[in-house]
Specification:
Layout: H1 3-34, H2 49-80, H3 85-92, H4 102-134, H5 142-173, H6 178-201, E1 208-210, H7 214-227, E2 234-237, E3 248-251, E4 258-262, H8 263-268, H9 271-286, H10 289-311, H11 315-320, H12 328-343, H13 347-369, H14 371-384, H15 393-399, H16 405-413
Parallel strand pairs: 2-4
Antiparallel strand pairs: 1-2, 3-4
Helix pairs in contact: 1-2, 1-15, 2-4, 4-5, 4-12, 5-6, 6-10, 7-9, 9-13, 9-14, 13-14, 14-16
Length: 416
Amino acid sequence: MTPALLTGLFLSLLITTTAFKLWLSLRQSQHVAAARDRVPADFEQRISLAAHHKAADYTRARTRLGRVDIVIGALWVLALTLGGALQWLHDAWLTPFDAGTLAHGTAFLSSTAVLGWAIELPLSLYRTFVTEARFGFNKMTPALYLTDTLKSAALGAAIGIPVIALVLWMMDALGGHWWWAVWLFWMGFNLLALLIWPTFIAPLFNTFSPLQDASLRTRIEALLQRCGFRSSGLFVMDGSRRSGHGNAYFTGFGSSKRIVFFDTLLETLTPDEVEAVLAHELGHFHRRHVVKRLLVMAAGMLALLWGLDQLLGAGWFYAGLGAQSQSTAMALALFVFALPVFTFFLSPVMSAWSRKHEFEADAYAVAHTGPDALASALVKLYRDNAATLTPDPLYSRFYDSHPPAAIRINHLRGAH
């Protein structure tokens, strides 16, 4: 391939994917707006028109902000690559560090991450303190936001800088087999993160208290026993400190597995509904969805690292994406920023796979708790989280990891 051919292909795909994302976003807004004034028949008895209006308006507000994010993201990638920003950053770090050294590569890649965070910061602030606040979801104070930001920055630096340095060292020191070593390190790092996140990292941001409701705890423990699931504890997270949204999740693996309920969720759902939501999460565990996703991610990462290895010495790769300098760090940066442009149209495949997992977890929950409690819980979650009941079908295929509400509820009704 020639540099000019890669430049043309990259630029064409960047324009195409950006235009397509904006078109999907407009479709979503128009579809939701068209259905705003009538609650879908399946939900008329359980969702008020006022709640339906709120969900439609919230969805459209988030989608409008998403369009700004799409444009900024595309311009940022263009500036970094063909605009020469990566090359400028690469050259700027030549003053304190020699070219090709581990220190230079680490500083260069770290600075791209910091600049990316700075580019995203205004949208993050607007999303939190304007959009989320407008619809009554934001509980975050400026002080808490600043504290979270500082903690995240410190954690990112403490973990990210050594990881970047180690990866660059392996890429330079291990010859043609580096990509196997980096892959093994990546796998080990992800497993370690799963192990330490529940007990060491998550508590830096939230308070996790043992579930105090004795009757609910007894009920949940009976469900866990029936399902053959063991965990290190049942915890309630102070999610209401930051947001009005509710959720529940599993985290960790092995002996560190935890079941976590947002306090906002427990305030909304009945014991039957909490049990049904937990049974759904247990369905993911029973069907080994996390393991399957890790295996697919592992295979994908191995293929990507092999692909990067093939490009390290290809001059057309650097020149075609706007870089004059050829180095390990530059190759890694170009690969990371250009890859999403080439893989966006795989999104429906991964979204469909995720929705399949949700249907399987629903079926497991129905088998253990019946369909009614889960359906009732989902309707409350749609209502309280202002989730739209009427997404655009094509938009949903690309972006939604969960089935649309109407399809999911009807599927539950037919699952027993």
